[in-house]
Amino acid sequence: MLKNFWYACEFSSAVSDQPKPIKMLGQNFVLYRDAQGQVAVLSDRCPHRGAALSLGWVEDNCIRCPYHGWKFQADGQCIDIPANGQDHPIPKKAQTASYPVQEKYGFIWMFYGDLPAAERPPIPPLPEYDDPNFHPIFVEVKFNAHYTRVIENALCPAHMATVHAKSFGAGFAQDPRVAPYEVKEENWGISAKLKYANFTQPKGIFKLFFRPSRTELNAKTTFYLPNITIVESDFVRGKMVNYAIHVPVDETTTISKRIQFRSVFKQKWADPLFVKFHYKVCEEDRGVSESQYPPVIPDSFTAEVHTPSDALPLAYRKLRQKCMAMGWGLNAKPTAADFSLPTNGHTTPTAELTSSSVH
């Protein structure tokens, strides 16, 4: 896992004025909206006796601990301890970690790291979100697999004819070859354009996109650090963009929060059909991703066999290793030190950011 990036941790629509618990990077966080609609993200742990703040309630733009009623501002500072009354000062350590927040592209983004604001990698662009030519659907899929394997699955151009033989990949059955392609560097990411010259008609709802029995499919796959994949498919009748944030919950769990954009059949009546088909495709991926061993992609490039079609996944591995070499790796399993108290508001505790060569 990596620090010093903006992480989309939840859909905007899922966060209200009620505390919302989430788990990410092996740690627990709580999200809530204040009276002005602004989102706050805090560590889901009261520094007093470790109770989950997400079991409490929002009051005056703050959150109350459910155990002893301590009241915390959005910056993590405690401003009221009911048992103390007015005669006792609030201890300086009575604060919990808070995190910078942005709300963009239908997601709540939190920055996890120790970089100054001016040095933080940006949230990558998503032009389709505001493009009236595209209609979105929102889905969420859980994988009992490490996020690196889930990401590589999304970047792999060679598994369609096998893993997805009963869905959109049926169109590759007669010619599963992957033509040579070039990996291009992006701002904090990579991309590749792929062309399939003999893409026959697939099964399921995707067959509505094709007229001829054989047609050319142009695709572009993009990865942005730390965990975003975008797969653009240009069909005869229109275009589809699959945007996915692969949230690293812990070492064995990944939740992919996705937006699928389509330029055809944009009526809402078609949404359930596309949602159902999307889940079918994800189920096909799930079995393979959850079976992979080792669970995490190896650090050594010689630990697994590679072919030319693996150029994009290999570029991802190299990009990730560059971040590790910069000291941006996170401990695979949080320890007691990971829950050290912050020294000030809107700062991730230094102990939480212990660099490591692990995942």
Map the helices and strands.
Layout: E1 5-11, E2 20-24, E3 27-33, E4 39-43, E5 57-59, E6 62-64, E7 71-72, E8 78-80, E9 98-99, E10 101-104, E11 107-112, E12 135-143, H1 147-155, H2 160-163, E13 183-186, E14 189-200, E15 214-224, E16 228-234, E17 239-250, E18 253-262, H3 271-291, H4 311-325
Antiparallel strand pairs: 1-11, 2-3, 3-4, 4-9, 5-6, 6-7, 7-8, 10-11, 12-18, 13-14, 14-15, 15-16, 16-17, 17-18
Keywords:
single chain, alpha+beta, 7-stranded antiparallel β-sheet, iron
Structural features, described:
The chain is an alpha+beta fold and 359 residues long. It has 4 helices and 18 strands. It has helices spanning 147-155, 160-163, 271-291, 311-325; strands at 5-11, 20-24, 27-33, 39-43, 57-59, 62-64, 71-72, 78-80, 98-99, 101-104, 107-112, 135-143, 183-186, 189-200, 214-224, 228-234, 239-250, 253-262. The strands form 4 sheets. The protein has a 7-stranded antiparallel β-sheet with strand order 12-18-17-16-15-14-13, with helices on one face. It has a 4-stranded antiparallel β-sheet with strand order 2-3-4-9, with no helix packed on it. The radius of gyration is 22 Å and the shape is elongated. Residues 335-358 have low confidence and may be disordered.
